[in-house]
Amino acid sequence: MLQVGPDLVCIELKGVNAYLWTGPGGPTLIDTGMPGSWSQLVGDLAAHGVKPGDLKRIIVTHADFDHIGCLKALKAQSPALVACHTVEAVYVRGEKSKPANPSVLGYVVHPLMAGFQRRYDLGVWQLDELVVEGHVFPEGFTALHTPGHSPGHMSLLHKQAGILITGDALSNHKGKLSLPMVLATPNMGMAVESIRKLGGLTYETACFGHGPPIVGGASQAIAAFAQTL
Ligand SMILES: [Zn+2]
Asked: Does the pLDDT at position 150 exceed 80?
């Protein structure tokens, strides 16, 4: 666990990050980690005095299994509202698998990834808040539609706190900003546009789905990365 800011904790769950917002409007969880991370997630929440039943809201950046892995279990124990981008709802519910990366290998791995999603039966039907670009959550996060890695991928900007939650719009692997995983990204052109969009905003801290947060100068770092694409 890493305290990213006064009101934000990064919880690493088997290689993917979830974020606990403890500020106004919270406690709120952003993404829910890998399937099988339940006991760690509950323990890490408890370390911050939060039980699943205390959560006010769970915001999902996108429906990949490493981000909604504990959503169903949380929903069973919590009255928290579940929010995602309206375009992502069919994937969070498990009604559809997200499109394949348009390459030979992309089409080869697509059924495997879709199988993972089905195997864990992660779909959550009761989605309480389907949001679009510009929606402001009571916690202060503004929804940003950042498609590419998935059609309804969403990043979140907290202007007042100077924090961007990127989801998998981009990653921070080994101290280096990088594109989302190619084979799990159906539209890399859109993903690049989404990174450019994030690079054009103002924030000090960026929190990624994969890799450590950047604290200080984050929007400049993402803008510089966007220029290389
Ligand atoms: Zn991911």
From this structure: yes
| Region at 49 (left for phi over 0; alpha for psi -120 to 50; beta for the rest) | left
Q: How far is the CA of 145 from the centre of ligand 1 (A)?
A: 16
Q: Could you tell me the end-to-end alpha-carbon distance of the chain, in angstroms, rounded to an integer?
A: 31
Residue 47 Cα to ligand 1 midpoint, Å, equals: 24
- Whether 121 shows a pLDDT value over 80: the answer reads no
Q: How many Å lie between the centroid of ligand 1 and the Cα of residue 195?
A: 16
Ligand 1 centre distance from Cα of residue 182 (Å): 12
Give the single-character DSSP code of 46.
H
Distance 66 CA to ligand 1 centre (A): 5
CATH number for the domain that contains residue 43 = 3.60.15.10
User: Which residues lie across from 176 on neighbouring strands?
Assistant: 173
- Which domain, by its residues, includes 110? 2-227
pLDDT of residue 174: 82
Predicted model pTM? 0.95
* Token code pair at residue 131: 């949001």
Provide the domain count of the chain: 1
Ligand 1 centroid vs 5 CA: distance in angstroms? 22
